[in-house]
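Example 9 (inverse folding). The structure is encoded as follows.
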């Protein structure tokens, strides 16, 4: 069990540092562009060559520069990669700690305890947050409503997202998935803590 927890920890660390490295490349590209560096110099040329496959999909989302300045698109992509990667790293770390706590409860014989119930609530909340995240993220890769898995994600997340969408939409940007993930994390953490501390 310790090996599984350790594997999740190292996976989350690799994800975190890899995300920071990739986002740093995109931020450096933007910085060199703003400084007026020669785009055909060794470093700017190779930075563009390495990061362009990540920037190209986002460029088409923003209308090829009509809605956002062309030199800001790598910055937007860097922020998206940074936020997404750190979120995934955090989820992996939390999943590892939950699996470790569940394993300790099983080993100690506390299968039907309040602590185990609290960890199961945390696990369900984490899986629901992952479902909201995947529903938000999969359309960027061309996965739509015709896909069965995406349809399942839509069915389980829409009851929470629909009321939030009435409040947390600004223009073309829908912030309801971010708010929903935040709320689910807080509420399940609070509920798991209350259940875990109760004596039954």
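The amino acid assigned to each position is listed next.
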């Amino acid at each position: 069990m310790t090996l599984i927890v350790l594997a999740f920890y190292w996976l989350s660390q690799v994800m975190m540092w890899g995300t920071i490295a990739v986002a740093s490349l995109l931020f450096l590209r933007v910085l060199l562009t703003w400084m007026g560096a020669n785009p055909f110099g060794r470093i700017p040329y190779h930075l563009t060559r390495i990061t362009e496959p990540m920037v190209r999909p986002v460029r088409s989302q923003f209308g090829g520069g009509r809605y956002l300045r062309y030199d800001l698109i790598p910055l937007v992509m860097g922020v998206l990669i940074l936020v997404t990667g750190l979120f995934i790293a955090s989820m992996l770390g939390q999943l590892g700690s939950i699996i470790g706590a569940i394993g300790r409860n099983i080993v100690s014989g506390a299968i039907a305890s309040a602590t185990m119930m609290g960890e199961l609530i945390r696990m369900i909340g984490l899986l629901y947050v992952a479902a909201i995240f995947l529903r938000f993220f999969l359309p960027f890769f061309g996965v739509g409503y015709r896909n069965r898995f995406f349809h399942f994600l839509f069915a389980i997340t829409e009851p929470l997202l629909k009321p939030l969408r009435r409040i947390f939409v600004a223009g073309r940007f829908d912030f309801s998935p971010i708010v929903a993930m935040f709320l689910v994390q807080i509420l399940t953490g609070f509920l798991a803590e209350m259940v875990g501390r109760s004596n039954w």
